[in-house]
Design a protein that fits this description.
9 helices, single chain, 246 residues, binds fe (ii) ion, 83% helix
């Protein structure tokens, strides 16, 4: 594990597990990521030309579906996200995963790069879960579920690494492919951070604007008297117009 990634995970994990409201957001994001992986795997079952991989993709998809349900159950245990927030996360995930983009991940990448992507993503997940468990951050029930999920994820890392090694032996540039995938994941993480940071700072600016600029106007404002008010001249004009048309 690179020291930079370790530092990032350590800081981010403290934030994610200790700040109220964040654990369920994190678990919700995991549930969506696992569901996205499940769909990617089932799409790969359909698209692959390799008969030897079909069964592996299918079982991998079933594992990810089970993980998605486990994480969703943990979200419910913590208290559900707001409906609007959950819907936004959901649509964001679907777009990011490219599931509604017309092409599946497997079709976009091709099988060797797809396998490298699976290896990198699964290895990252194993590192991330291990940091959480080493630091004892989640509650006991979530830790027990994470340990159970980790066993599956370690298997996913093992079989995908075996396949990446096979492609490398066949002469494909798998190291360059994995570097490209890692860079793309860093870039995507940066974009997600920028979006969250943008939402956070715009909230601060709008609050300041409200209290410092709009708020003082309330001191000078007063409510108008209620009810209908005759507008001078208008009633007569309308009557005259109606008569002329008649
Ligand atoms: Fe998983
Ligand atoms: Fe996995």
């Amino acid at each position: 594990m690179g020291w930079l990634r370790r530092c990032y995970l350590t800081v981010a994990s403290e934030f994610s597990w200790r700040v109220p409201g964040r654990p369920q957001r994190l678990l919700g994001a995991f549930a969506l990521a696992e569901r996205g992986s499940m769909l990617d795997m089932f799409a790969a079952v359909e698209a692959t030309k390799r008969r030897d991989m079909r069964k592996k993709y299918f079982h991998h998809g079933l594992d990810e579906g089970r993980h998605a349900l486990i994480f969703a159950e943990r979200v419910r245990a913590f208290g559900l996200l707001g409906r609007a927030e959950a819907a936004m996360e959901d649509s964001g995930q679907l777009l990011e995963a490219g599931i509604v983009g017309g092409q599946t991940l497997f079709e976009r990448l091709g099988e060797p790069e797809f396998m490298a992507f699976v290896y990198v993503a699964e290895a990252d997940a194993v590192e991330q879960f291990n940091v959480y468990l080493d630091r004892g951050l989640p509650d006991d029930a979530t830790q027990a579920q994470l340990r159970a999920i980790l066993k599956d994820e370690v298997f996913h890392v093992t079989y995908s690494r075996t396949e990446v090694d096979k492609y490398r032996k066949d002469g494909l540039p798998m190291d360059a492919t994995m570097r490209k995938i890692r860079l793309r994941r860093v870039w995507e993480r940066w974009l997600r951070f920028s979006r969250d940071f943008g939402s956070f700072t715009s909230g601060i600016w709008l609050s300041l604007l409200y209290f410092l600029v709009l708020g003082p106007f309330r001191l000078f404002g007063r409510l108008e008297a209620g009810g209908w008010h005759p507008v001078e001249g208008r009633a007569g004009d309308a009557l005259a117009l109606a008569r002329s048309e008649g």
